[in-house]
């Protein structure tokens, strides 16, 4: 019996299915429990057979002819001030017409309060009408908050909707210059599959809102939820659809709130804005140094000040440490606002090179005012705070310490040192201990000691306690 021709055999062969990650969009030939690209679990979905690659594509009509870059008008997309200086700092000058901003944060951190304040400031500044669409609260609830904040303005419009078509209808009726959608996970479209908040719905709603914002030149702010590990909830492609991604951070037990830029197509992506929650709303802090310093006049053992760089902003941080005898069988190590792994490293350096015995003692370290200090520039300040508490010797209140510690107790340079010193001098610090840096500009009225290792840092404080053993180990 003659065999079938090769063409018929290949035609009868079934097409292999393909899989695509719902988080990052990565395509795979076979199913995996974990996406090889974004490492997310259970996100690969079957999308059918892969399409044949395009070897030749014919030219089609263009939407607009290409023009020289110098002739492209840019006035229509220049940033407009939102009315909140700290928010404008992070945005790069303000909100851009047609730009889409994704503001993410934990529940209850104050996202809706911040945006309501921004909406009132936008309308009061004569920038046009504002439309706030909420899928989580009723219009009456938002009105009550606006009464408490003093954010009532006739150009601010409220709507409680959870259907995408209704949101677009409100856009046609109000014609706002600023749209606030709170939140993207609560809006659904009848044309997309799944429930509100699902991957398919969030992607479809975000794409539709972004397209309308670009077409009509409406500045848009989308509120997003975050997961337990602090990442933005929903598909990863959501961050690629928008122009700006902001993270709103803060501890519920602290009044301090930070807006951190993660992505910004219109300005710097490393800026930080500071806000403070008050009884009637939220206010920006142009100089938040008072929140991060205890304001204590008398020196107390276990405290040391340093300067952190949050984006391009230099902020003072006071570190507090307590070394005490353990009340149980096991000594505890506890941190608040600091990186536990870095404190463990600093403790080991102190025991090995600083002559500080911490066996059987509990060690607690924290920052003042809810600040979070995780950069290596705080290593030396933390080491001196721990040494101060262990030796019961208070450091001078005018001292500020900067530097990263190596495992052999060397002090390494840190980024932005001149900017940190200028901020320290502005805050009244007159003595600084910093790493050795070539051509360092010293602010007027400040004594700056450049040290190469931990032993030199001890000597700069005018106390040789613990230094003798260190020098013997070094063979000096």
TrEMBL record:
Annotated ATP binding sites: 105-112
Chain ranges for the short sequence motif RadA KNRFG motif as given in the UniProt record: 263-267
Listed Gene3D superfamilies: 3.30.230.10, P-loop containing nucleotide triphosphate hydrolases
Domain RecA family profile: residue ranges: 76-226
GO-annotated biological processes: recombinational repair
Source species, domain of life: Bacteria
GO molecular function: ATP binding; ATP-dependent DNA damage sensor activity; damaged DNA binding; hydrolase activity; zinc ion binding
InterPro entries linked to this entry: AAA+_ATPase, DNA_repair_RadA, P-loop_NTPase, RecA_ATP-bd, Ribosomal_Su5_D2-typ_SF, Ribsml_uS5_D2-typ_fold_subgr, Rubredoxin_2
One of the record's GO cellular component terms: cytosol
Region annotated Lon-protease-like, chain positions: 362-476
The entry's keywords: ATP-binding, DNA damage, DNA repair, DNA-binding, Hydrolase, Metal-binding, Nucleotide-binding, Stress response, Zinc, Zinc-finger
Role noted for this protein: DNA-dependent ATPase involved in processing of recombination intermediates, plays a role in repairing DNA breaks. Stimulates the branch migration of RecA-mediated strand transfer reactions, allowing the 3' invading strand to extend heteroduplex DNA faster. Binds ssDNA in the presence of ADP but not other nucleotides, has ATPase activity that is stimulated by ssDNA and various branched DNA structures, but inhibited by SSB. Does not have RecA's homology-searching function. Plays a role in repairing double-strand DNA breaks, probably involving stabilizing or processing branched DNA or blocked replication forks.
Comment field on protein domains: The middle region has homology to RecA with ATPase motifs including the RadA KNRFG motif, while the C-terminus is homologous to Lon protease.
Family: Belongs to the RecA family. RadA subfamily.
Protein name per UniProt: DNA repair protein RadA
Annotated organism of origin: Nakamurella flavida
């Amino acid at each position: 019996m003659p065999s079938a021709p090769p063409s018929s055999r290949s035609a009868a062969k079934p097409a292999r299915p393909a899989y695509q990650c719902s988080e990052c969009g990565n395509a795979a030939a076979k199913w995996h429990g974990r996406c090889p690209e974004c490492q997310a679990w259970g996100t690969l979905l079957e999308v059918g057979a892969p399409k044949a690659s395009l070897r030749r594509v014919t030219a089609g009509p263009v939407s607009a002819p290409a023009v020289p870059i110098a002739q492209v008008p840019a006035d229509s997309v220049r940033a407009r001030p939102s009315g909140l200086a700290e928010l404008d700092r992070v945005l790069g000058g303000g909100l851009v017409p047609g730009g889409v901003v994704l503001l993410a944060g934990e529940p209850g951190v104050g996202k809706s309060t911040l945006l309501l304040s921004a909406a009132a400031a936008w309308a009061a500044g004569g920038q046009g009408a504002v439309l706030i669409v909420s899928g989580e609260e009723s219009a009456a609830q938002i009105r009550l908050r606006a009464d408490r904040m003093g954010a009532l303005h006739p150009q601010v419009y409220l709507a409680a909707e959870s259907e995408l078509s209704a949101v677009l209808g409100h856009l046609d009726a109000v014609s706002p210059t600023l749209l606030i959608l709170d939140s993207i996970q609560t809006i659904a479209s009848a044309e997309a599959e799944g429930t509100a908040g699902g991957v398919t719905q969030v992607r479809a709603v975000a794409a539709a809102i972004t397209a309308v914002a670009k077409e009509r030149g409406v500045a848009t702010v989308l509120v997003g939820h975050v997961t337990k590990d602090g990442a933005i909830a929903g598909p990863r492609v959501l961050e690629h659809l928008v122009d700006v991604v902001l993270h709103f951070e803060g501890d519920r037990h602290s009044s301090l709130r930070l807006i951190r830029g993660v992505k910004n197509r219109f300005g710097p992506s490393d800026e930080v804005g500071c806000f403070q929650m008050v009884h009637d709303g939220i206010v920006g802090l142009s100089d938040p140094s008072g929140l991060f310093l205890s304001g204590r006049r008398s020196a107390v053992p276990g405290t040391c000040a340093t300067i952190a760089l949050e984006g391009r902003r230099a902020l003072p941080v006071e570190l507090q440490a307590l070394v005490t005898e353990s009340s149980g069988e096991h000594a505890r190590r506890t941190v608040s606002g600091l990186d536990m792994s870095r404190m463990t490293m600093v403790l080991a350096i102190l025991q090995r090179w600083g002559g500080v015995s911490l066996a059987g003692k509990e060690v607690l370290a924290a920052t003042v005012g809810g600040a979070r200090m995780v950069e290596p520039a705080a290593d030396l300040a933390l080491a001196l705070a721990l040494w101060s508490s262990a030796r019961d010797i208070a450091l001078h209140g005018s001292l500020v310490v900067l530097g990263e510690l190596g495992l052999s107790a060397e002090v390494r340079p840190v980024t932005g040192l001149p900017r940190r010193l200028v901020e320290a001098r502005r805050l009244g610090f007159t003595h600084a201990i910093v790493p050795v840096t070539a051509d360092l500009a010293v602010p007027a009225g400040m004594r700056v000691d450049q040290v190469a290792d931990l032993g030199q840092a001890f000597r700069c404080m005018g106390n040789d306690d613990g230094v003798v053993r260190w020098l013997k180990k070094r063979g000096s």
